[in-house]
Amino acid sequence: IKDNMNVAVLHLLYGNHPSDTSWFVRLLKREEVVTLLLSTLVILPLCCLRDMSSLTNLSAVSVVAMVFIVIIIIYLYFDNPGDSVRGAGGTLYENWFEIRPGYLESLGTFVFTFVSQHTVHLTYESIKSDVKSLENWKMVSTVAISIATVVSLTVGVTVYCTFWQHAGSDLFEMYPPLRSIDFCKMLLCLTMLLTFPLPFFTCRELIIVSLTQIGRSECETALDDELHVSLQEPFLNDGHAEEGALERSNEGISSRIVVEDQEKQLLLPYHLGVTI
Known about the structure:
Distance between the termini: 20 Å
Low-confidence stretches: 238-253
Strand content: under 5%
Number of strands: 0
Mean pLDDT: 79
Order of helices and strands: HHHHHHHHHHHHHH
Largest sheet: none
Oligomer: single chain
Shape: globular
């Protein structure tokens, strides 16, 4: 966001060499200030939500943004404006079989793309109760992973075929100054802004679970294994967890910080404190 958002907006509104000296232009040139404002006005309010169900529509916006990025990348490959985009490449061996330095570092890009395991349980819980079932979850997870795979491979292969040996992970910086690329940068930042809270919810839940264990007696601590099983029951029992296990998991949780009948939701002051 820091490297792309302000540059993209600045170029889209004022061109690659803005001569305007208005306060808005000066603001866009201060990357740290723009990042702080976006974090405070967009990311923080989204992180203050109690669950992921409110992010459903925002996730759809992120998917649409990624589809537009894919379309633009493919269009630039075939259009090759001014013959300044697509490179000549090398031999068949050099293009597709040669292993060059930096291969291991590039694996991080693929790992980051498919890191979703830590949000699986929260995502399942965000599904509306009338459609929450193991069969629907299988469909949702399969479609989501399939979309991520198609988008990632399409962008990766197209960009690689565009720049060949000169391709890098920071793909938008490889293109010449183009308004379409600036638009892609803005869409990418929008996607990151809307999806950042997802891993944050997982971290916050881990903190809440840890806080609610403080002050537990030895007898109550012995129930930790049952609590661990109860977290998996929505999957093991096709969405119908045994209420008794969840009731037992509430034993020992301080009523001073936890919302009544919601073992993983803190009262508002504590909720905001942990979030911030």
